[in-house]
Amino acid sequence: MEYRDQQIPGINGNIVLYARVSTGKTESDTTENQFQEMKRWCSENGYDVVAEFKDLCSGRSLECRIGLKEAIVYSRATNAKIAVVELSRLSRSVSDTADLMDSSTEFVFTRSGISMSKEMILVSSIFTQMESESISRRVKAGIHNKFETEPGAREEWGQARHRDSTIQLMKESRISKADEFALKNGEYAFMLRQQGAPYQHIADRYNEVEIKTSRGGDNKWSMNTIRSLILRYERLTQEQ
């Protein structure tokens, strides 16, 4: 951690920087890279950086997050906001994020350039945790269902001479994964569209609250991806 003596706040006030990476992983998004990125954003937006904190541990639990806890305490004492590059660096656990809601701390997510309200943070954390926990289950469920309905598929899966069948199985697994993603993430977009919201407005909303696309990573929602999500969700719900 690093503290700085900042007596006069900038145009938008003082701000505390928080960065996190998981232990045991080689990541391009290192804590140093995160700090440099946040410093540039703070400089461009009139904030004075008064302290820096970091953690080298998983985002799924707060037990090892000494840096985050100290950042919250420091921000309360100095009436400063806390900057984080994105929600996933803050927490991937809904319960832990909900615990943070008891504080009056305001979190600024520099990659989206917005300060999230308590409600927005909680909604975003729910989607983040759902995405994190369900990816492997989606793929496994598709493969398991294939094996259940077609007993011979299990043998074909491991045999190179049945390459065409294996490709088809993988394709069906991807379709199953896309369907589950649409059912989990499409209801909100469908509701907004029913209320007359343009596709771009819905895409902007999903990006603001950091709902991950099916591709994950830094991919952003667009008019086309939102439209596809809504169409798939509508088709699946009509079939049920």
Could you please describe the fold and organization of this structure?
This protein is α/β, with parallel strands linked by helices. It is built from 9 helices and 6 strands. It has a 6-stranded mixed beta sheet, sandwiched between helices. The mean pLDDT is 76.
The number of helices is 9
Rg calc? 21 Å
- Estimate the global geometry from the Cα principal axes: globular
Give the structural class.
Answer: alpha/beta
Total strands: 6
- The span between the termini is 53 Å
Total count of domains: 2
Strands ordered across the widest β-sheet? 1-3-2-4-5-6
Element order: H for helix, E for strand: EEHEHEHHEEHHHHH
Query: Major sheet, described briefly?
Result: 6 strands, mixed
DSSP strand content: 5-15%
Mean pLDDT over the full residue set = 76
Low-confidence stretches: none
Keywords:
6 strands, 240 residues, 9 helices, alpha/beta, Rossmann fold, six-stranded mixed sheet
Describe what is shown at a glance.
With 240 residues, the protein is α/β, with parallel strands linked by helices.
Give the helix/strand layout.
Elements: E1 2-3, E2 14-21, H1 31-44, E3 48-56, H2 66-78, E4 81-84, H3 87-90, H4 94-100, E5 107-109, E6 114-115, H5 118-149, H6 153-157, H7 163-194, H8 199-208, H9 223-239
Parallel strand pairs: 2-3, 2-4, 4-5
Antiparallel strand pairs: 1-3, 5-6
